[in-house]
User: Fold this.
Amino acid sequence: MLVTRRAERTGESASDDYFVCLITLLTFLSFTDHMVIGTLQGRQARLLNSPKGPRSGPSTTVKTFKNHGIKGVALEDCVSYKERFYWACALLSSWRGIGWNWQVAKVPSNPDIGLTNRQAASRHLMRVVKLWIRRSVEMYLINFSATLRTRNTNDGDGSLAYTLAIEATFIWSCQMRMWDSSKMLYSTAAAIATFLGICSPAEWPPLFGRVGNAWSVRRTWGQVWHQSFRRTFEVYSGLLVSTLGLKKGTFASRYTKLYASFFISFVIHSWYSFCAGPDEMGNFRFFMSQAVLITVEDGVRFVWRETGGRNHEAPVTRFERVVGYVWTFVWFTYISQEVHQVFFEKGLIHPETGLEEWLSDLARAHALLFLQSLSILTKTSICNLPLPTLQLLRTLNDLVIHSLANVSSTECAIKDQCPHKHLQTSTLKA
Assistant:
């Protein structure tokens, strides 16, 4: 398969294959980390927030547990098979190490701490409903913009501003769809686990950080995006640094870990994409360019602070933050285009409910109607416009109905209702 670059399907859809491969690979990496590398390095994974210890509290940070003198439970401390099984399941299911002695950094603060299990489950269910509604709107925007960008590419006559608006809508709708899908799956699992009493609310902090912190590419990846792979990046990039004999905390060590982390991320995501269908080099360009841009960001920030005579630890000004937001938005809009296009074409971004199927059809029909309306309005000499406003609105309303029934019948609907018989068919085609 690796030689022929031929992906074998195991599920009913590409997204099913993607998800199965994600779980399989992360389970393998987690096992290798804790049972192989950890054993060789003499470190043990200890479950701090265990049934033998506190199940809730003001915080689940490692520092809090240490301050309370809680050493946690290692595998060797588990006597019965039930305890060992629980310990192993807790380890494999905790990608960020919440409640463990190896919890990763930059985990968002948990707003549900202090709630009962039922209250936390109810709050997570409310989040699921909100995310479900948002995902439906995003699916509409994805199909609407995808139809417009396809026609715009084929015709090649759209203005720069029009093209950029379409591309930005498509890219960020896809991005928000992936963002909200991950959050909805996470909140669903959290609602079930807290309702059944398997976990405490403190064990389910938010999956993503605040969007307001995304005023640089570095902060976007380090604080805003989910930190599910952070442990994997730290372990394997640290192993590389140790092998190369680089001193911890030096320039060479920091940036070796940076580039190694994004290369590992590329390998992981390439495996997912390969299982769903070959991706060629899109993932490599996307992930490795992030490391390059972060290096550039660090350099620009250093020069800016030096020339301005400011301390490098000084707080960021409003001007710097605004420039950072614009820069981050422009960068991810540019670099994400190919990746989201591939995901959309492979079916990794697709309607998952009957409502989303209907909204997708509606969006495509509205996109065609929008293009046809533009065509009519920009060629007023053919239709001998202006037409009465009421008549135009009535015509557009009829076109929507025809579009929903059969998109291909839209042209006939306009042609039949246009009072100007000399209107050419070529003008009506989207």
Summary: Residues 45 and 319 are 44 Å apart (CA to CA). Confidence is low (pLDDT under 50) at residues 1-7, 51-60, 407-430. The chain has three domains: 14-93, 117-346, 356-428. Residues 117-346 form one domain.
